[in-house]
Amino acid sequence: MTNPAITAQALRKSYGDKVVLDGIDLTIPEGTVFALLGPNGAGKTTVVKILSTLITADAGEARVGGHD
Q1: Which CATH number covers residue 24?
Q2: To bridge 26 with a disulfide, which of 8, 41, 46, 62 should be the other Cys (CB 3.0-4.6 Å)?
Q3: Closest-CA residue to 60 (of 4, 7, 12)
C-alpha cells in the first residue's frame, strides 16, 4: 500500500457565523487521480484553498506530501 499524498482530518472553517466546512476527512493515496465533486456551496474551493495554504482551517489537520 502506498503512502497518502493528501490527508485531511476534521477540517473546519467558518466565516463569521456561516460554517462552510464542518469536519471534512480525506485520504488520497499517492499515484491516484481524485475528483472533488459537489453542489455549489459544498466547500470544494475552501478545501482546495486550505490544502494549498491560501487560507487556514479553523480546526483540523491537513498533510500534503507528508508536510503539515
Answers
A1: 3.40.50.300
A2: 8
A3: 12
Burial of 13 (0-12, 13-18, 19+ CB in 10 A): buried
| Backbone torsions φ then ψ of 32, nearest 5 degrees | -115, 160
In whole angstroms, give the CA distance from residue 48 to residue 35.
Answer: 11
Burial environment of residue 44 by CB neighbours within 10 A (0 to 12, 13 to 18, 19 or more): middle
31: its cell numbers: 499515484
Supply the DSSP symbol for 46. H
58 within 8 A of 13, measured Cβ to Cβ:
yes
Domain that holds residue 54: 4-64
pLDDT in tens, 5-41: 999 999 999 999 999 999 999 999 999 999 999 999 9
